[in-house]
Structure formats: C-alpha cells, structure tokens
Amino acid sequence: MVQSSATDYFRDLYELGADPSLSLEEKIARAITVGRDRLDVSSGLLSHVDDGDYEIIDSTVPSGDYVAGSVHDLDEQWCRHVVGDRRVLAVVDADDSPLRNDRAREATDVRCYVGAPVLVDGETYGTLCFFDETPRETDFTDDERRFVRLLTRWIGYELERERHHRALDRRNERLDEFAGVLAHDLRTPLTSVRGYTELVLESDAISESDAEDLRQVLDATDRMETLISETLALARNDADVGERTPVGLGAVARDAWATVDPETATLVVGSDRELLADDSQLRQLFENLFRNVDEHCGPETTVTVRGTDDGFVVADDGPGLPADVADSTFDGDYDSSRLGLFIVERVVSGHGWQGEVTVDDGTRFTFSGVGTVADPLRS
C-alpha cells in the first residue's frame, strides 16, 4: 500500500473536526478509518472499558469478533496494557517480542498492535487501537506513535465535549421543570389572594381607606403575576429580551426599592441617566438585588445606584457576598440556592450586557455594555 504523507492525514483530521455537518459518531468512524489507513493495518476500533468489560464502540471490522457493539473480557485483550499503563503500546510482531506468551496472544489472532488510552475528563474512557493478524514489516515510527496519541487525544476531546453538552442539556431540562413547578406553585395561592380580595372589594361594608389598601393588594398581585411570567421566560430562554425603550435609571431603581421596601437600608441614586432597556425586567433586576440587601445586610446599610459611561453600578456597604457566591455569579450555572442572583444574570444576558461582582467593603455589581440614550438626567 502506498501511504499518503503525514501532512495529508493531519489535514484530514483537521477538516474532519471542523466539519459541522458530521455527528460525533460519524467523526469517530472516519477518524478510525484515517488511522487505519495511515498505519497500514487491517483494522481499527474505539473501545470503552468498565469494570473489566471491553465494549467495542466503533470498529472497521465488518463481522466476527470486534464488531461494534460486542463486549469482551478486558483481561484477554492487548488493550489491558494500555489501560493499566495509560501509555502507547506498539507491537510489530507479537510472536517475535517479549509479549509472545501474553494471554492476549493466546486469546486473539492479533499479532500486530498499536493502541493508546482515550481520556475523558482526566479518566480512562477506553482505548483506540489498530491491529492486524499479520505482522508489519517495519517498526512503528515515532511519527506514527505521535499520530496515534494525537488521534486518541482528539477523540477524547470530542467525547468530553459531547458529555458536557449532554450534562448541560440535562441541567437545562431540570431548570425548565423547576421553573414550571415554581410558577404553578406561586400562581395557585396568588389566584386565591386575588379572588378573595376582589370579593371583599365588592362588599359595601368596607371603608374607602380599607378599599384603597385592598386595591394596593391587587396591584401587588398584578406585579407578582408579571414577575412570575418573566421569571419563567428568563429561566427557560436566555434569548434577547425583545423591545427596549428609554428608561430612567433612577426612576426604575426607586420603584423597585419601594416594592421591596428594605426596613433598615437607604437608597442613594447618583449620576442618573436614561438607558435603553426592558423597563419591567430592569426593575426585576433591581428588585432582586435590593431583596438580597434586605435579607442579608445589617442595619444602616446604604445602597448606591449610579450611572457610568457604559452602564451602571449597584453597590452596598454591607458585609459582602460570600466569596463562593460572588465567584460563581455570572458564570451561567444555575443554583437553586441563589435564585435571585440567577434572575439578575438572565436579565443581564438577555439584554446582551456584561455583569461583574466585586466584594470589598461591601458588594459592588457593575453592569457594562449597556450604553445610554441620553445625557445624565438632572436631579
């Protein structure tokens, strides 16, 4: 067989990895074929090892032993050396090598073998090996051994990426389920609150003062319904928020502050300006930040909201977020213990902004990439 140059095979691998139309299974199948042809042997396969089992994931063998889907005893395979040593094993002619009496030689017809471990997330997933029932005329060169290592590393990276994508999909599915359950559990008592409030308002036995208080309750239920709908949408979809309008930074912050109504904290608004944003979701961002202050900061805490050249800052002089919470905020991972900050993250990402948290004599949230639509407003 006339072999192509090593450069051709590396180019083939590059093109294979860059082809978005191929599935992972198709990429692996073609990679095994590329390796088999490059090494001038009859067969190649990718295995997965687990608790002594040697499962063939993909293979160029069309029939008989080592077809895809077959399972064997790892102790009877050449690949057990690769799994145990986690390094390349190359045997040109098993019958003329120190491994002539190896149990794999007795259990299989393989005389020529080269294989390497496939690592996924630092753990041995299995092996990639190429073999033949007849010996090679020449030793495996250093370039060929490097080629096998490169091929196994590439397959390991592809498997690792696929595993992470599946984990992300499962996490998103759990998040979607959680969001739906949460919305249902919140809407059920909210409907009761609205129904009883409207019933009492229809009575002639209440004073105008009480009626005004009840109308505020209805306004609050409307706001909660809006929050539930928006939170559900944000949790299920990280897409663009849609239409944006000019909104006053200070006005939205003060409305959110009035809704949360922290008992022992003070709001200060500086460098007010207009931003281009979704008014309701920006208010939701502020409400969650202010609620965090109300629940976790001590008395006499001051919260400062001010505009910047590229966005705005929300800072407090409280005890500061725990380091692990601050470090994980805006990393894209959902944590049910910090739902409020997760909603803040989604509002930010939905607008296409950037967020950053620093903890130093309090907590400072910096939002950039926002821009302004007007000069700073005069107080």
The whole-number mean of residue pLDDT values reads 85
The helix tally amounts to: 10
* DSSP E strands, number: 13
Order of helices and strands: HHEEEHEHEEHHEHEEHEEHHEE
**What percent of residues adopt helix (DSSP H or I)?**
40-55%
Second rung of CATH, namely the architecture of the largest domain: 2-Layer Sandwich
Envelope shape: elongated
The gist of it:
With 379 residues, the chain is α+β, with helices and mostly antiparallel strands. It has helices at residues 6-18, 24-39, 79-85, 103-107, 142-201, 208-236, 249-260, 279-296, 323-328, 339-351; strands at residues 43-50, 53-59, 71-73, 89-91, 112-120, 123-132, 245-248, 265-270, 274-277, 301-308, 311-316, 354-359, 363-368.
Q: How would you describe what is shown here?
A:
The structure is a single chain. The chain has 379 residues and is α+β, with helices and mostly antiparallel strands. The chain folds into three domains: 6-166, GAF domain (Beta-Lactamase); 168-236, Helix Hairpins (Orthogonal Bundle), CATH 1.10.287; 245-368, Heat Shock Protein 90 (2-Layer Sandwich), CATH 3.30.565.10. Helices cover 47% and strands 21% of the residues. It contains ten helices and 13 strands. The protein has helices spanning 6-18, 24-39, 79-85, 103-107, 142-201, 208-236, 249-260, 279-296, 323-328, 339-351, and strands at residues 43-50, 53-59, 71-73, 89-91, 112-120, 123-132, 245-248, 265-270, 274-277, 301-308, 311-316, 354-359, 363-368. A six-stranded antiparallel sheet has the order 3-2-1-6-5-4, sandwiched between helices. A hairpin with a 2-residue loop joins strand 10 and strand 11 (311-316). Helix 5 runs antiparallel to helix 6. The longest helix has 60 residues, at 142-201. 28% of the residues are buried. The model has no long low-confidence stretch (mean pLDDT 85).
